[in-house]
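Hi R.,

Here are the chain sequences for the assembly we discussed:
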Amino acid sequence: MEKVLMKGNEAIAESAIRAGGLCYFCYPLTPQSEVAEYLARRMPEVGGAYLQAESEVAVANMVYGAAGAGARAWSTSSSPGISLMEEGISYIAASELPAVFVNIVRTGPGLGGILPSQGDYFQAVKGGGHGDYRCLVLAPSSVQEAVDMMPLAFDRADRYRNPVMVIGDGMIGQMMEPVEFKEPKFPPLPPKDWATTGAKGRKPNVVNSLYLDPKAEERLNNVLAAKYEKMKREEVRFEEYNTDKPYRVLLVAYGTTARICKTAIEKLDAEGIPVALLRPISLFPFPEAKVLELGRKAEFLLSVEMSMGQMVEDVHCAMGHEKPVYFFGRSGGIVPSPEEVVDAVKSRLEGGKS
Amino acid sequence: MKALFKRPEALADVVTHYCPGCTHGIAHRLIAEVIDELGLREKTVGIAPVGCSVLAFNYFNMDFQQAAHGRAPALATGIKRARPDLICFTYQGDGDLASIGMAEIIHAANRGEKFTVVFINNAVYGMTGGQMAPTTMPGQVTTTSPKGRDVDDVGYPIRMCELLTSLRTPGFIERVAVHTPQQVVKARRVLKTAFELQRDNKCFTFVEVLSTCPTNWGMTPFEATKWLQEHMVPYYPVQNFKKFEEAPEVNIQTAAEPAKEA
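And here is the predicted structure of the full complex:
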């Protein structure tokens, strides 16, 4: 298929439609409002459902209702909006409903600003709302990868009956890049025989997350935990860069930051300092075994983020005390420059503080 | 032999947890009877709220979703937007609908979402043990208004039918009661109208049901029906607020089509 030049947010919207995400609910919020604007035009053309809701609180619950009725329901928002959706996302996880949420992350905490950030890592990968649950979390580092991820996200949401979160920073949403809409094939999915579609010729289906009996509640938590364990076995995704030859330092970075790290690695290479990159594509499940395997070959690891240090905790957790794990990041919407990353690596090599 | 009285098919054959004298049972039965009568059971999805009726999904014999507190209209919106062919109703109490779910109900009504809301107003939070609700009467003693609701401090009770009637879009709004046989018969008729309008894809339909809560009011069931008549009915008039009219006259200036100058 031909490549077209598209803005990240619009490309995500188009890819979702092609993946059958035909029930979309939204509330405007910078820097992702273009998704809603695109779908307000496009959804009626494909016979889908588009609705601008009264709040993100309502959005997540509309997604719940539609997903419960068997639709491929989804939404997009940005950090403060995702916080409001987390109530619904917790209920969606507990009720074992499939749904896709895209978070085009802006700065925080609080109202923050509209510039790119990776400050929602904790929220995305550690649960986000109340209770024992996880989202499958995918982090694209280009518009093309975001486009490729949407069909995967819908497939995995259906397959696991669990919310999937695609997390991109404002750069991914706002950047224009050439993209190609592939049509990936997935194995057949089981029928949604649990959906509330009218109890015709069968017993009533109930979509519910209320468990007053502690044994039943623990049973649910065990079912959910088994799903997350399965994800850890089958859904770990990552990219290795420059790891095919010896390296002194392993950078760990995702999303836009990983692209910056690649440029930094070229610069460091030119100076005779071999550095490699591990780019987690799935943030949950986190590629912890890969961190350990690649980290062992380095003198130290450096987690580079657009935050005050969030993913670094998972890098540390994976690496244990085998090798030093350091952090470099910028926040507030300041995107780190390759030179800053180069300096951060060199200062650690020289034993200084970055 | 002809059966004159039996359990509606739309009700499950189970014992409910509702207190003696509570009117939830009557409201459940009326909804079930109407759904049976209209032959809608196999295409209906009910939404249970948070509150005393949180377990409604066990009591109705039909598909159900259970909502977060106040969010039932958002779930119903999602269901009807995804599957307009289904029949959907929310069953919500006064704390759920008139307090935490105020935004969801107003906007669902204002969009004219084509589902039915059954709003149980018993002037108190029942499930959590008798706290003050947005519909608690002035001077009414609850566990969180021990000296009676002080309207200077927390305002007057909210009249949801009247509030929603101020909106242009919603098509059918009526308040009923279930504390006398006569009112029960009328309530059934009103619920039937609401579900018929939804079945015919006409409009948003809202039925408020004035209800008793003998347990949290600290009364016998009979005293509770008297209290409802004496205290609630004068403030919450039992009447129709909006009847559905086909193609209501549109006379507003829109950006796309400016009104012609007179």
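Chain A touches chain B at residues 23, 25, 49, 51, 53-55, 57-59, 61-71, 73, 87-88, 91, 95, 196-201, 204-210 (CB under 8 Å). The domain at 4-193+209-234 of chain A is CATH 3.40.50.970 (Rossmann fold).

Let me know if anything looks off.

Best,
T.
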